[in-house]
# Entry
Amino acid sequence: MPEFAAATVRMRTPEDAVALPVRSSVDLRGWAAEAARGLVGPDDDVPKLFDALAAELREAAADSHERGPIAALSYVPEPRLGELARIELSALVADDTYPAMTVDLLQRYLAAPTPVSYRPPEAELRTLPAGPAVRVRHAYVQDVGRDGLGTVLETCAYGIRADETWGLVLLTSWRALAHTDALCELTDELAETVRVTS
# Structure
């Protein structure tokens, strides 16, 4: 078993966030309908809004489930606008190639430029209650069409060294660029709430 399997990892769930069922097997259609109803409210009789939000939550859960995070959240402060951001907390375990988990390794992992990087990543070292960390802001271009235009996906991530054998990655991603500062601030607040206990 990986070293982190014996640990308990906790993080505050922000108001207006829905926990995505990534660690259990559920009927996603039924789960998404219930979650959408909870966000929209029982008295809101706008079937198109309800159906669109349920479909978006179902897709968000399926998408996050593929990556296998410890926890994933869909941040939906305004249900009429759908998901504003996705928040995922994942574990990284040292292996034969990288036998020790270090903040430098987490920085190289999170701040590596890619062919789809929109701008160079920005990294800075931080100290969190869960351990030493690196904060990385990055932006990518996705879904580039034949015309060369694409969608910018922004991220704010923390690589947190839990101990020498494993670390955590807290990643918030979004496409609504007008909310960048607020979402980076939310990620900063969440990173301060991450706790690891054995």
User: Anything to note?
Assistant: The two ends are 14 Å apart (CA to CA). The beta strands are 8-10, 17-19, 71-75, 85-93, 117-128, 131-142, 151-163, 166-174, 195-197. The first helix runs from residue 28 to 40. The first strand starts at residue 8 and ends at 10.
